[in-house]
């Protein structure tokens, strides 16, 4: 309540996001029980019923995002779950803008599975963009890329042989030798924008970022490449994060970081 009042009082809109629900975790070993379990879904219904009622009198400055980064082998189950929750929220706030994050960590490649939820003029598809992931998450412990000899990966560039610095079952083995280029980012967003135009479905880039241990100049180039595509296609965006590993503000000094400087030209 305090956060919403503070934000709206300072002319900031709010996207109220449930980052995890019982039976849905987006970690290295994702939990997807939620999408098959009626009891867990009932808990989600109770939670969103409570939230919707609590904020039913707020105006369009407040939006809802049902669930952050769902992960399921069957995207149709995620869509069915969203449909159930949208009906609950619509029964309380018929015109509230609702965001639905695409399956598999907000992938651009799974947005089509959400089409059965439309047409709905107050529904937006959220994607999250961290590609190439091996670059944006280099040296990050939670994706097991933190070997002391893990090399600096430059952007643009080519993924080097990482066999000696990542576990045997690490996804990075599949990326060795692959290019990491501005053109590939442009192709991904061109495809997304074409789908959005053809379907009339609005898209929002709700997360993107590169970990602070990536080389500074490469990080700047990567942010520029992503934001140029968002600007080109009229896609709204939010950089991840404020004062964490992808910080736009230094957690000790509150001064702007390299990331803040990279995104600032695109703020207006």
Labels describing this entry:
6-stranded parallel beta sheet, 8 strands, 268 residues, alpha/beta, two-stranded antiparallel sheet, globular
Over the alpha carbons, how many angstroms does the gyration radius reach? 19 Å
| Quaternary structure classification | single chain
Sheet bearing the most strands, described? 6 strands, parallel
Low-confidence stretches: none
**Order of strands across the main sheet:** 1-2-3-4-7-8
Mean pLDDT: 96
Described by the principal axes of the CA atoms, the overall outline is globular
The tally of helices reads: 8
Structural class: alpha/beta
What fraction, in percent, of the residue positions are helical?
Answer: 25-40%
Intertermini distance:
29 Å
Q: SSE order, as H and E? A: HEHEHEHEHEEHEHEH
Q: How many beta-strand runs?
A: 8
Beta-strand fraction estimate: 5-15%
Secondary structure elements and their pairing?
Layout lengths: L1 H8 L4 E4 L20 H17 L7 E4 L9 H16 L7 E4 L1 H4 L16 E7 L3 H4 L20 E2 L20 E2 L1 H18 L2 E7 L7 H18 L2 E2 L20 H6 L5
Helix pairs in contact: 2-3, 6-7
């Amino acid at each position: 309540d305090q956060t919403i009042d503070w934000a709206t009082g300072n002319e900031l809109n709010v996207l109220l996001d449930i980052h995890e629900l019982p039976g849905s975790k987006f970690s290295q070993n994702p939990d997807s029980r939620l999408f098959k379990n009626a009891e867990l879904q009932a808990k989600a219904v109770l939670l969103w019923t409570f939230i919707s009622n609590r904020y039913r009198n707020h105006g369009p400055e407040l939006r809802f995002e049902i669930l952050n980064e769902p992960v399921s082998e069957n995207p149709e189950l995620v869509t069915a779950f969203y449909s159930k929750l949208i009906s609950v929220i619509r029964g309380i706030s018929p015109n509230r803008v609702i965001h639905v994050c695409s399956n598999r960590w907000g992938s651009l490649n799974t947005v089509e599975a959400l089409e059965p939820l439309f047409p709905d003029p107050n529904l937006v598809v959220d994607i999250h963009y961290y590609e190439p992931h091996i670059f944006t998450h280099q040296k990050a412990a939670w994706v097991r890329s933190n070997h002391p000899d893990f090399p600096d990966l430059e952007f643009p560039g080519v993924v080097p042989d990482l066999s000696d610095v990542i576990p045997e079952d690490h996804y990075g083995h599949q990326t060795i030798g692959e290019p990491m280029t501005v053109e590939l980012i442009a192709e991904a967003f061109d495809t997304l924008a074409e789908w959005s135009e053809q379907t009339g479905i609005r898209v929002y880039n709700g997360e993107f970022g590169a970990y602070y241990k990536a080389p500074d100049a490469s990080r700047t180039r990567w942010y520029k490449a992503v934001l140029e595509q968002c600007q080109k296609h009229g896609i709204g965006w939010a950089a991840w994060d404020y004062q964490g590993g992808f910080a736009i503000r230094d957690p000790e000094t509150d001064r702007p970081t390299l990331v803040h400087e990279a995104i600032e030209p695109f703020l207006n």
